[in-house]
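Sequence in, structure out.
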Amino acid sequence: MVENIIVTQKLCKTFSTGGLQQHVLRNLDLEIHAGEFTVIMGVSGSGKSTLLYALSGMDTPTLGEITFGGERLSGKSSDKLALFRRKNCGFVFQQMYLCDNMSLMDNVMASGLLVDKNRKSVAARAEALFAGVGLSQRDLRKFPAQLSGGEAQRGAVVRALINEPAVLFADEPTGALNSTSGEAVLDLLTAANRNGQSVVMVTHDLKSALRGGRVLYLKDGVVCGECALGVYAPGDEARREKLQGFLTEMGW
């Protein structure tokens, strides 16, 4: 039986601009399965990022309920939500948001020490993660401006994983990278998922979406379809054709 890590009920998000209301999420019921690589797709303005931020507790829905790991997020104060995210969520964005005046290692240590005060254990975990993403000891001492885009994003993935989050959230993680660096980052997310990490990724890119085991299509604030792809394998043309057919059906 599939275990759900996140469940939403009648989720709504409305923004008011100039006296007009924009309904971005509409009575959305959704289940995110533990240990799965879930991809959220849809045209620009469909509510993909808004949904991601709501699921992770970064944004508060207007109406509805979110249960994350059996814990209700609704009604939590901003301070309690911040503490919850720190312990349970990892984030990878299109922009890396690394602190420019800190080395890559210090960027990761700063995040890790918020949860685990044992500096030695955090450093050991960080070094193991860095080695796993192909970054050298020399790279760890560099500042963000001294890194390539791919190196910086790999460092951002390490930062997202340092506290062993229940869910890794990724919002267009390859959007600012060239194809080679983007592929390397997708390989990292795929490897993390194969090691049991739950991943939820927003993307508009077909190549990135192929990494997901389950693709949800968002339209006008509701999930209007989903495509089960199973385990990713490079060069699987049947997988690509299945996803392309699904997206065509959805009007992508």
